[in-house]
Write a structure and sequence with these properties.
Blueprint: H1 3-29, E1 34-40, E2 46-49, H2 64-73, E3 83-84, E4 100-101, H3 102-107, H4 111-133, H5 157-169, H6 176-186, E5 187-190, E6 195-203, E7 206-215, E8 218-227, H7 235-247
Antiparallel strand pairs: 1-2, 1-8, 3-4, 5-6, 6-7, 7-8
Helix pairs in contact: 1-7, 2-4, 2-6
């Protein structure tokens, strides 16, 4: 390796350390324990804080991303507009207590909607899809309606981004039309500077905000996992992610 290459690598290393330190300050100043990973489309630029690839967590409602694809591929639901009839049972969130569509069920994180179809998918098919998606540890456990909430399924922050890359590039063993339906309901923010496709998740102490954004000619993937100790911590899933993206000048 020549002298110029050594100097270049040192500059990149110092700059990367400085940026990662900025992210650490965002988390510590808000008294939040967590880890975040942000990667460019080509994978050459990576920002991270407290990421341990051996550490994995329940996906919670971020599993609605692959689950939506599975339901569509299995023909259990036609598109984002098909009505999912409410069963009349009152649940903890008012937004759940009415008829839904796939789009509203995804956006409101309607658990009962996804549990209804999970029963129809069944354990055998779930295992097959998890392997084909290369998603987490492939485990479901005893309850097919809760394995992504408090069952045995686990994945890392890096696993989240690896799967999001396949969604973005439409390189999954799923009909491309179904992936595009998912993308339509994942689109969570549109403005003149950037668009974001994302999903939150929460189960017990595990809180997530994952997705990807497009700003001009740049595409970035992000996965933020934080420890939830009280309900007010939930806002930090997205808040810390957006603060980090702004601090890194990825968005304005």
């Amino acid at each position: 390796m020549n002298f110029l290459k050594v100097i270049l690598l040192l500059i990149i290393s110092v700059n990367s350390y400085a940026e990662d330190k900025k992210i650490e300050n965002i988390f510590t100043s808000n008294h939040i324990t967590g880890s975040i990973l942000i990667e460019s489309l080509d994978g050459k630029v990576k920002y991270q804080y407290n990421v341990d690839d051996t550490e994995s967590f329940v996906p919670a409602s971020t599993f609605k991303i692959p689950n939506t694809l599975i339901f569509l591929e299995e023909g259990l639901i036609k598109d984002q507009f098909e009505v999912i009839k409410w069963d009349g049972k009152e649940r903890e969130y008012a937004s759940w207590n009415k008829d839904q569509t796939l789009e509203s069920a995804f956006q409101y994180s309607c658990v009962w909607c996804y549990q209804r179809y999970a029963k129809q998918v069944g354990d055998e098919k779930y295992h097959d899809y998890l392997r084909r998606f290369d998603y987490g540890n492939f485990l479901t456990g005893d309850d097919i309606t809760r394995f992504w909430l408090d069952g045995e399924l686990r994945l890392s922050v890096k696993d989240q981004i690896n799967f999001l890359r396949k969604v973005y590039s439409e390189e999954l063993p799923i009909q491309k039309g179904h992936i595009r339906t998912l993308k339509r309901i994942m689109l969570s923010e549109e403005n003149k500077n950037y668009n974001i496709w994302s999903k939150t998740g929460w189960s017990g102490k595990d809180g997530w905000y994952v997705g990807y954004l497009v700003s001009g000619n740049e595409t970035w993937f992000f996965a933020n996992h934080i420890e939830i100790n009280k309900n007010s911590d939930l806002t930090f899933r997205k808040k810390l992610t957006m603060e980090t993206l702004k601090e890194l000048s990825i968005i304005k």
